[in-house]
Amino acid sequence: MGNLRFDVVQDAFKKKVLDVTAPAMRPSEYFGELVFNRDKMRRYLDAKVFDALVDCIDNGCPLDLSTADKVAEGMKVWALEHGVTHITHWFQPLTEVTAEKHDSLMEYDRKGGMIESFNGKSLIQQEPDASSFPNGGIRATFEARGYTAWDPTSPVFIQDDTLCIPTVFISYTGEALDYKTPLKKALKAVSDAALPICQLFDPAVSKVHSYLGWEQEYFLVDEDLYAARPDLIMTGRTLMGHASSKDQQLGDHYFAAIPSRVAAFMKDLEFEGYKLGIPLKTRHNEVAPNQFELAPIFGECNLSNDQNQMIMNIMNTVARKHGFVVLLHEKPFDGINGSGKHNNWSLGTDTGTMLLAPGKDARGNLQFVTFFVNVLAAVQKHNSILKASIASATNAHRLGANEAPPAIVSAFLGRTMTEVLHKLLELPSGTPIEIAGKKETSVGLVEIPEIFLDNTDRNRTSPFAFTGNRFEFRAVGSSANCAGAMTTLSGAVAEQLIAFRKELDKELDAGKPLEVAIMDVLKPIIRSVIDVVCFEGNGYSEEWKKEAARRGLDTETSVPEMIKAFSTKTSVEMFTSLGIFSVKELEARNDVKWEMYSKKIQIEARVMGRMAINHVIPAALSYQNKLLENVTMMKETFPESYLEKAAVPLEFIDLISSLISDIRRKVDAMVEARRKANTLESEYEKAKAYHAIAESLLAIRQPIDKLEEIVDNDLWPLPKYREILFIN
Ligand code: ADP
Ligand code: MG
To answer: Are 475 and 354 part of one and the same domain?
Structure first.
């Protein structure tokens, strides 16, 4: 019998490095080539139409249909030059992958021929059948229609032969069925809330932007090895697999030279990304073997998130050209690091001030501290839903599993900012405070060093860390849509800023100067955040779990329970008062989350059961037969002493039998548990039941991994960790 696994591994190992398709041009020459950006608008739209569209993008002014027709006409001319034949509304339903339905541009010309046609109406709105997208019961079957509506703030782009129009996706009755709609509402809320505070410092400010810079981690696996693992194909992760003798313990992968086949993939990916206007900046090896990261230059949050979704889509297309498959799952391999997507987040004014970076002067620093402290207060108040916003069946493998992030949302400030907060508290009340920057003569009491990025400590165990000019929300999962986390964070911050401004107005009305008033409102907040949400220690430690519970932070570790936090009064008040979600939308979203959780675990459980019965047990039995043959022959050859001579095979025969029965018993119990879970009506109850099933998968895995350790290597049908993780 030939060993299939051996052949597959040989094929994978012998793959050649492909030539990269990027032309000999500079990236700056083709950057944004496939995006209908300002430059294209200028070239393809007449001046009046250009002005109207820019006004719509920058100031939210509505676009009338005849102008939209002209915009569509300009887009069409540009698109046809690039060989476009189809258009699609591109949206982000709650399935966690983007959706598109292509329509050809072909129309009858009413003269017996065909022409390419594209008008304002089909640019602005489409009506896809919404019935097959998750909606959490919002959609009754008789009103299955959903609308996609153009988001002009995110530019139209070309993928292959299709013009893609970024859109929001809402139900017939107006509820959001996607990630983009609430994100846009939350970004507006935080801008509106921050504005009246910024204007106290600079009346010229008219808008506050949210910025996002994501760091996308991923694994690359050879496609031949991938194809031989049903678990990877079906669930995106390995459900079984004994640890490799060597994995990440030497730390020799992190930042090491990029393997050549991987480097070719990265260059091709960057080429595709640049054409789509995605400002990819960083590429490197990550901690685990065959784990990598890419990150762009940060940008406006909604756009940057769209770009993350775009790059997640094209990663796999490009990878296949190089014989790889990209794994975006948070935990494809047990026992080594999983993948996250750090969300670097900050706020900035349209006048160019970064609000979470130390200012140029005393006033700038006061503004910085104001925003800094209010963000901490928001994270403190809403730590439960921030955790819920990143909770999923797949991210559950990272959460609380002694790996970034812990299942408690706290904030890490670093030594400098911790000292600054303590010093601010020591000031006698009513003292006008100035916080001096480096460039000015120091008149204040607290110095914030100007160069400060380099002296922020790194605390890898913190889910929400200040890194000098931004906060880094590290708990987001690698497969997630960043919008979930960004919507929640923005809403929380918006609510806090509104409350702060209200308190501040009372102090100002009492006649206090601005500096005094701000500090008087900030001080109790500082005291509270230092005591509760700020934590500089080891987020993985047992002591922290106890301490965090004592401080009143949410320490829940079960994903179905975490999700419930969205329904608490605190959460509902925040989201509804800001108009980000209605009560109905919140309830529907929870149902979708629970449903997705259950379904993902259901799939894993089915795959696990089938692999155990169809792959693992047969391999174990084959080996056991070999051992039995050995014992029989021993007995024939050495009738007297065979028990002693065949001691090892006998021991293995026994062990295999007991491991096989263990697997069988556990799989049966798991199937039974699934049967019960499936009868539950409530999505929450079902998710809870599937949470228990998820734990039982770990128990099934143990005897399987044990078998992998003892069964003849030639008979093991599944590529092993040492192969999947080290061939590239
Ligand atoms: P590290 O791995 O050290 O955290 P990276 O350079 O890999 O840093 O990624 C940092 C990300 O943070 C990049 O996307 C970068 O553009 C982004 N970033 C930098 N400054 C800001 C900021 N003020 N607001 C939002 N994102 C930022
Ligand atoms: Mg980072």
So the answer is: yes
Q: Is 298 in the pocket of ligand 1 (CB under 6 A)?
A: yes
**378 occurs within a structural domain:** yes
Residues 613 and 526 in one domain: no
Taking each helix axis as running N to C, give the angle between helix 47-59 and helix 65-81, from 0 to 180 degrees, rounded to the nearest 10. Answer: 100
The residue type of 203 is P
Q: For residue 676, what are the contacts with CB-CB under 8 A and spacing of at least 6?
A: 689
Number of domains observed in the structure of the chain: 3
Q: Is the CB of 377 under 6 A from ligand 1?
A: no
Residue that is last in its domain, among 177, 209, 225: 177
Would the pTM of this model clear 0.85, i.e. be above it?
A: yes
112 Ramachandran zone, left/alpha/beta (phi>0; psi -120 to 50): left
pLDDT tens digit sequence for 554-591? 999 999 999 999 999 999 999 999 999 999 999 999 99
Atom of ligand 1 nearest to the CA of 295: 14
Ligand 1 binding pocket mutation candidate from 208, 212, 215 (most atoms within 8 A of CB): 215
| Pocket of ligand 1 contains residue 354 by CB under 6 Å | yes
222, 85, 88: which is closest to 165 by C-alpha? 88
Closest CA to 35 of 84, 100, 2: 84
Closest ligand to the CA of 213: 1
Q: Is the CB of 453 under 6 A from ligand 1?
A: no
Shared-domain flag, residues 543 and 574: yes
388 and 298, same structural domain?
yes
The token duo for 355 is: 């609000």
Same domain, 647 and 567: no
Residue 521 sits in a domain whose CATH number is 3.30.590.10
User: Which residues span the domain enclosing 571?
Assistant: 186-581
Whether the Cβ atoms of residue 304 and residue 296 lie closer than 8 Å to each other:
yes
210 lines ligand 1 (CB under 6 A): no
Pocket test for ligand 1, best of 281, 298, 372 (most atoms within 8 A of CB): 298
Give, in order, the Cα–Cα distances in Å from 240 to each of 357, 559, 607.
45, 22, 11
Q: Is the omega angle on the peptide bond into residue 405 within 30 degrees of 0, that is, cis?
A: yes
pLDDT digits 0-9 by tens, 503-562: 999 999 999 999 889 999 999 999 999 999 999 988 888 899 999 999 999 999 999 999
CA of 348, closest atom in ligand 1: 23
